[in-house]
């Protein structure tokens, strides 16, 4: 996008934000690439190459996990159990400021990296859960990230101290349903929003990828910021390619 086009579209974006009364945001793995966490389907996404000959989609499926938890933990240990090594970036920080100013009413993220919360956002819905909580797959005893992460980093499968069952993060794996409460909240918030920012998502993983469509069908304006085209670009009022450029500029207006 050239400079003149960016400036014109950016001014339009600020007008939309300033006149919004119920802004929502829907974020994906792309917002955390600026923090160094790889996404799945971007140009350097971890789906690009199989991991030890296996598809990542398969590794994080419930069926595969129940048979080979050691493979999931070996794959997940380098990023998902080193989350404290990554810092929120300008996108996370600016969304937190917009919430604090009362402009952003609800933030739905597909990410499991907790960077929105660490940036200060309070009203965060983790659509695909997160690694803060874990549970035993046999007796359902609960464990926290701080207990599990050192075990995973040591190359072991975390096991329940009560019954020896395998511990699983409360992340929604492929083959699992989304939390019913999150779905209901999403329906409420995206039906009532007047401006929905869609940030860093390929909009491929369903049903979460339909949330912006709910907003559009309810009469909201939708703004997409994503490096690659998405199948929902056609109804976006505005579209930007670069999260860093767009949010550096937004942080100057709202920071
Ligand atoms: P995705 O990987 O399918 O898509 C990310 C999109 O972001 C890509 O289209 C890419 O072009 C875009 N992008 C990357 N960096 C960008 C930048 N700087 N500016 C603009 N666009 C940029 O991610 P998804 O749609 O969120 O789906 C992946 C699933 O995997 C989600 O369910 C998510 O939970 C999970 N995941 C989470 C993390 C995380 O928590 N950080 C990381 C990887 C995957």
Please tell me about this protein's structure.
This protein has 255 residues and is α/β, with parallel strands linked by helices. It has 2 domains: 1-37 and 87-128 and 177-255, Rossmann fold (3-Layer(aba) Sandwich); 38-85 and 130-171, SIR2/SIRT2 'Small Domain' (2-Layer Sandwich), CATH 3.30.1600. It has 10 helices and 9 strands. Helix 5 packs parallel to helix 10 (243-254) and helix 8 packs parallel to helix 9 (211-217). It is elongated. The two termini are 24 Å apart. The mean pLDDT is 95. Bound molecules: nicotinamide-adenine-dinucleotide. Nicotinamide-adenine-dinucleotide is lined by residues 28-30, 32-34, 37, 39-42, 45, 110-113, 128, 200-202, 204-205, 225-228, 242-244. Residues 28-30, 32-34, 37, 39-42, 45, 110-113, 128, 200-202, 204-205, 225-228, 242-244 line the site of nicotinamide-adenine-dinucleotide.
Major sheet: size, sense and barrel closure? 6 strands, parallel
CATH topology of the largest domain: Rossmann fold
CATH class assignment of the largest domain = Alpha Beta
Low-confidence stretches: none
Distance between the termini: 24 Å
What is the percent of helical residues? 25-40%
* Number of β-strand runs: 9
Return Rg in Å: 19 Å
Structural class computed from helices and strand pairing: alpha/beta
Beta-strand percentage range = 15-25%
Named once each, the bound ligands are: nicotinamide-adenine-dinucleotide
Question: What count of helical segments does DSSP give?
Answer: 10
Average pLDDT rating: 95
Spatially, the strands of the biggest sheet line up as 3-2-1-7-8-9
What is the number of independent domains? 2
The oligomeric status of these chains comes to: single chain
Name the CATH superfamily assignment of the largest domain. TPP-binding domain
